[in-house]
Model the fold of this input.
Amino acid sequence: MGSLFRSAEMTLCQLFLQSEAAYACVSELGELGLVQFRDLNPDVNVFQRKFVNEVRRCDEMERKLRYLEKEIKKDGIPMLDTGENPEAPQPREMIDLEATFEKLENELREVNQNAEALKKNFLELTELKQILRKTQVFFDEHEGGTNPTESMTRALISEDAIARQSGPVQLGFSEKHYDPEEYYPCFVAGVILRERIPAFERMLWRACRGNVFLRQAEIETPLEDPSTGDQVYKSVFIIFFQGDQLKTRVKKICEGFRATLYPCPEAPADRREMAMGVMTRIEDLNTVLGQTQDHRHRVLVAAAKNIKNWFVKVRKIKAIYHTLNLFNLDVTQKCLIAECWVPVLDLENIQLALRRGTERSGSSVPPILNRMDTPEDPPTYNHTNKFTSGFQVLYDAYGIASYREMNPTPYTIITFPFLFAVMFGDLGHGSLMTVFAAWMVLKEKPLQAQKSDNEIWNIFFGGRYIILLMGLFSMYTGLIYNDAFGKSLNIFGSSWRVSNYNYNYTQSVTDIMLDPASEDYIGYPYPLGMDPVWQLSKNKIIFQNSFKMKISIILGVTHMLFGVAISFFNHTYFKNRLSIICEFIPQVIFLVALFFYMVILMFIKWTKYYATLTDTPLGPRCAPSVLISFINMVLVKDTPYEAVCETPYMYAGQGGIQMFLLLCAFVCIPWILLAKPIMIMRSRKETSQYSVTHNQLNSATENGDAEQPIHNNTSQPPAAAHGGDGHDEEPMGEIFIHQGIHTIEYVLGSVSHTASYLRLWALSLAHSQLSEVLWSMVLNKGLTVDGWTGGVALYIIFTIWASLTVSILVLMEGLSAFLHTLRLHWVEFCTKFYSGNGYAFQPFSFELILDSASQSKEE
Amino acid sequence: MGAAALPFIIFTVLWGGVGIVLPIIVPKNPNRGIIQVILMLTGACCWLFWLCCYVAQMNPLIGPRLDKHTILVMARAWGNPLN
Done:
């Protein structure tokens, strides 16, 4: 196992596989997931590769499986997900799988077709049944009541003009037809979608000039449309008319409106008989339909048991053939040649896997794994586990570390939650966060199994360990700030007390400032964090600001120095002595001489001045402002001071020391700017006198450092040769420009980055003020109501307070503090040492392939 | 100096223990290095944070400005009644 401090050492390997063993070997490597294959035929079209056919077959199988899955989902059958991971089947099993899927698909399609046909039949019969039932009413009306119809007809005809205007009306008998014997004209009956009725009526009326008579009745129950499976409402209609011409016209209109026409006998007896026939046929159909559905269900249930398994198998086969497509075929066609990146430490595992693969395939010739030398940069591979992966993601989002570069993740595991907590410090809010994260961590397994596709939840869950540490550290910093939901805890007893005031005096003034020089202060501070008395005082912000600003700078300078220190390990690892001398050392001097000195001043100010020593040079009036002192130091100006203090300085000789530090810092600027390019220039002049052979060697290992003799054996870490800054190809002018930018970035960056750490103070101030306001403006209102109403009021107000606390103070403030912390790490910390020019190791791993496949399916 | 020795010793020993002693006794396992770094940084960060807060209050140059009602309550509750 590699450690997380640097990415794992990688090597390029060449792999010779027997054609018949290749499949099994690749399958074993896929299970292992530690090998990244390179495409050896990048100029070959995807369609011209060797195993295109197999990939296509896999695609086809996947399509069939998706079809099956869709059908299973449609029927709401639960799919069994045992979570087991079947091995990739042998190539010969592929045919069996194909046959199985083919059979299943065909069976299912057939069943579906049959079911559709049956349903269509069923629909027709039900419609016919409805027609027979409804038309019965129409016919009954005719037989029972000729008179009303007649009178209606007459009335309508006489008021023909009005009827026309008033729109479509049932109408349609010319006057000569009142004889009941001749009364039944031709008619057609059918069923139409209900929403089409008005248009249909109007069309009939207009096309037939009012010479038809339409009756319609709604079918109450919705009918299922067999092609789409939707429930639709329909109506039965019957149209009376006369003459063949009208008949063709009516039929055309019916066709146009997609109405289905059914034969309907005129005689009541026939109708009754027909209705009976229809009923029996419907019953028969129902049994058949039921059996068909049963069969379909059985097929699907059987398929649902295996479908996940099948998916895994098919995807594995497909992945293997995809990988085989990247390989090169040897001239004899007996052998496949692959190139791959592998972690050096895992070579043994890979050999074992290859051996297993060979045994499985029954091949007698073992595969050959050769290490190769390459001028290329290997991929970056960090061994993470569930705890560290979340933190690694933070940096991968910024840029994948260069190969073998110091990985900031191990340090970030603590510094990230800690800096977050400095901004978010609150015991109450921190414990809420901890409880939430602890729940996620403890319920890890079941929560993971649920595989939610809620993006926000997945982000929280993925960062559960980050959140847990953030919560724990927030609790600690909250304890130090003495803040819990905006209130303080008085655990050890305050160091301040009220002494020597009499009652009358206290009543005559609005407020009193306790005197630190008197007995009000017991002489030693509250042991753990802020004294609770400050929570009650009116000048709390003044006191806390000075404290929080100072710790922001202290933590910031420490953090930046830490970053610069890491760059030292990078330089030593890459044997880059030039950078240590010309970059690391002046950088440290610059940072220490200016900013770390300021930190020292802060501690001096904290410890040296006493409130009791009033009117002496160490009294409170003489304590100089650290910031002003620092600014004046840089500007080389004198600080004004009061006569009683005698000196503007904190210690003897401060002026001289500051002058010296300032000079050191200024010397560092040309040192960083010029030293390195000049050294490179000189060494180049020397090497240019070297023979041509050097150049040849140099081109063989493109990145070789000019100052170093080149040993091209693999026993040496490959990075050693590649580690220089790759200046050899760059023209001199560019090196100067590069270094100039670097210098400006560092020098100006030190100033702006130090100031940038003040966000620690700003955010923590905002957080504590917000929580205090929320307490006094919301919860306090509930606490001050008397009597039983107080209980009710508190109940409601607590709800509001609690939800605001969670939503604003924990979630929103937490998010903002998180982003600021991220920035502090990416910009202020990373720029000191991190180049992030690598590319990630993407191993051929079934696990990853299956994960991404199941995710893309869910979205 | 306005420091009391006891809290200083307690917290230094506590965080020193976390940051120095624990990393030494971490059992051997593949992640030993990471755990050591985590413990050391935890000790260092927490100790520094506590130290700053303690030192900042050691020699206060200003006192808390309190409302007169707060003064009365404080005097009564923290056992130093006004005369």
